[in-house]
Every structure is written in structure tokens, then in C-alpha cells.
Amino acid sequence: MTKPRLERAIMTQELWVDVLPWRNDPLVYVWSRTGRPISLNEHRAWFEARKYKLADEPIFSYHENNLLVGMARLDKVAEDAFEVSLLVNPNQRSGGYGKQILADVCVYFLLNKSSDLKLIAVVHQDNLVSQSLFTGLGFNPMSVQKHFKTFIFSRG
Question: Residue 91 is part of which domain span?
């Protein structure tokens, strides 16, 4: 039996609050750069500032049968590089959604961003599940800095 195809949309303001508990799940924030939960005010302020960049730096929501299962975003981190970040609904973990979402983001990047641009991911060096996800979809280790590995997507 094949999985239904995920539907991608631009993240709406109505969904911003829905993903905060995902972000603050201990199995998520332990791997984050802050290493701690964030407040609703921090979360709202970040999204409020970020919404003006959606045309060039999209934040996607992913739905299966109208259920929000994940999100991904592309952040411009340098003139020649975008960083991809993912979150999967904790209630939907181990369902293959991370792989589907990352694969979709990579296709989006290839189709919509110049070949001069790099796609990178920054993963905690102890987060072996995420490292496996990224390497399995064509990301190669590039560097390690302060407990985080940077991976670069191979376009070929």
C-alpha cells in the first residue's frame, strides 16, 4: 500500500501556534541550537518578523488528508546558501514524513533556486536519526562546529 501524497502549502499564521508544541517537544529542542523550549511570545515574534521573507525564504506546511503532519523552511544564511529545517508532528513520528518532506523541499529547491546556490542543513552531531535522513537524501558532511554538523546537498 502506498502512502498518500503530502500536500505542501505556504505556512499560514493560523498554523504558527500549532507547531509551537512540536518545537518545544523535549525530543526536538534537545537538538536545537537554543537547547531549550521557547515561549509563545518568542515564537510569535519570530514568525511575525519572518513572514515578510516568505517569497524568497518559504515556510511550508505539509498535510495528509487535512492533518498537519510537518513543516519545513528555507532560510537564506549567506549570499550563496539556504539552510533547510524540518519539524514533524510528534504524533506522526516514524511514519516516513521527514523523508517525504525533505525530498519535496529538495525538489522545490532544485526547481526554484539558481544552480549557483547551495542547500545546507545543520544537525546536532549526536542526532544520528537526522544525520541519516539528510545523508540518505543526498546531503554530504561539510564541517563540524560547536556540536553541530553542516551538510551540503549534492545537486547531482
Answer: 7-153
